[in-house]
Amino acid sequence: MVQLDFIVMAVFAVLIFAIGLAFTRTGSKSSQAFFEAGGETPWWINGLSLFISYFSAGTFVVWGSIAYKHGLVANTIQLTMAISGLIVAVFIAARWKRTGTRTAAEYIGVRFGTKAQQFYTYLILILSLVNTSAVLYPVGKMVYVATPFSLEACIIGIGILIVLYTAAGGLWAVLVTDVVQFIILMAAVLIVIPASFAQIGGVSNLFRQAPADFFEPFANDYTAGFMLAFIGYQTVYIGGNWSYVQRYTSVSSERNAKKVAYLFAFLYALSPVIWMLPPMVYRIINPGLQGLEPEGAYMMLCQRVLPAGLIGLVLSGMISATSSKANTTINLSATVFAQDVYRSVFRPDASEKEQILVARLFTLLFGAGTIGVALLVPLAGGIVEVVLSVAAIAGGALFAPIIWSLYSSRQTAFSVVFTTIVALVVSLSFKVLLPAFAGFKLDRSVETLLGVGLPLAVLGIFEYYYYTQGMKSPRALALQQAPTRETPAVQQVQHEAAQQQNRFGITVIIAAAAFVGAGIALLGVLAGSNMTVVAVGSVIFLLAGTALYRYVLKA
Asked: Transmembrane ranges (predicted)?
């Protein structure tokens, strides 16, 4: 990398941080603005945010590493996410909106009581700390591969940036930066792919020179059984992860909640074909990466095929994409702590401004903890092992019982908490204790199937027992009959405030997109009139200009 690359990265970093600051005032007006982004955000913003948040959990490092090693297997894994997203769209997303609650934590409190809410809150905060660290590490790894900085310095620097803009603007800052990050990412990938194929002499050489089993959909650790189990896991994770539940509850209607998940599924049905090509191409260029080196295959390719300035752009896109998962989880953790720990346990009479202040302070503390844990990821066997292990152990145990309760009026606080404890103990035993003391280890397919299947089996037993006893939860029946929380007059005020926030948010997205497009086109000129780059930037700028005229100036 040269000076121009660092300048490009700095400019885009300032842009993202400035967006966060732009929503500081909006996010400070009320807890609804900070925690729910007004409660009526446009479904397409939430859908893009859900996609880029989920997509970035390690796509370029985790799945990129698998794409380098096993080829088409990485595409198959990601296509399971499209299937899971479709299931969530059809069956789950609208159910969350129908509860009338703002967050998953609030739903658990109403449905199962304060003790169950606290139990899940503490577990989710721990899981969020690990998940965010598992995201921050890939960001740092990509910057480390492309720059002279140490891995530790990269993780710390990027972590601080993410924490600061998330603390400033709340959920709106997260949503808008996610959309802008999606634009940067799309531009970056569209630039990298043609350059990648040019490096190996065309698409045909990828098929001609790849290893014999490179285009098989399955591999040793990633069998058809694993893919089926992974669909189950992804379904409960996309449908029940507290960060993503916010995307379904902060839109205006059940129909729009479905649209959020449908957009996610559509994008994931298309994206694997594009995203995984660069590391697959790099396997042809340099087949000798060993150990944890394949985690950096994406950036190694970019350094090889792109001129000065464009490496900084692509790296900004990768960082932006991966960072969006971190900001989503950090925002969720701050929301949960402020509303469901601080207010519920310590300060029941806390004002809205006090809750927002606590959320911002917790964001800073949680971010510091995340950075610390991210530095330990290499000691756990690398990012692939961390991501898949956490998924197998915690996904079904924490999220399946709550999703089940969206359909069942029989499940109780005891049944869901008992199910979670049993699933966690059994999965941890098979993952940690038995390998250490008995030398017995499950393969990845069975491990993932156990993580999802066991809690569903236990819940099924409880459901049957409660059915035979004719039991229904009084809390579930009360939730179904709960009146609207606000009067029509208050609802109208909130609606008008939400519409104002929406207009401001969309205006910021359009302006940022125009800036990104102009910047990319300028980079294309500086890179020796690279017409691909100029064209990508120009299209983004023109689309943003058209949107600005139709939505802002003409309105």
From this structure: 6-23, 43-66, 72-94, 119-137, 149-175, 182-202, 222-240, 260-277, 297-315, 357-380, 386-407, 414-437, 449-467, 504-527, 533-553
CA distance 263 to 185: 17
CA quadruple 286, 287, 292, 297: dihedral, nearest 10: 40
Residue among 243, 249, 244 at smallest CA distance from 128: 243
Give the pLDDT confidence of 49-66 residue by residue, as tens digits: 888 777 654 577 777 888
Which helix (H) or strand (E) is 297 found in, with range?
helix 297-305
The token duo for 214 is: 């490179």
Rounded to two decimals, the pTM is 0.80
286 φ, ψ (degrees, to nearest 5): -140, 90
- Alpha helices by DSSP H, listed for 201-296, are 203-209, 224-240, 242-249, 254-275, 277-285
DSSP code of residue 347: -
Q: Which residue has the higher pLDDT, 117 or 182?
A: 117
Tell which residue, 380, 337, 323, has the closest CA to residue 173: 323
Percent helix, strand and coil across the chain, each rounded to 5?
80, 0, 20
Per-residue b/e over 389-419, b at no fewer than 16 CB within 10 Å? Answer: bbbbbbbbbbbbbbbbbbebbbbbbebbbeb
Rg value, the chain, Cα: 23
Which residues, in sequence order, are CB contacts of 206 under 8 Å at separation 6+? 197, 200, 280, 281, 284
- Dihedral class, residue 17 (left if φ above 0, else alpha if ψ from -120 to 50, else beta): alpha
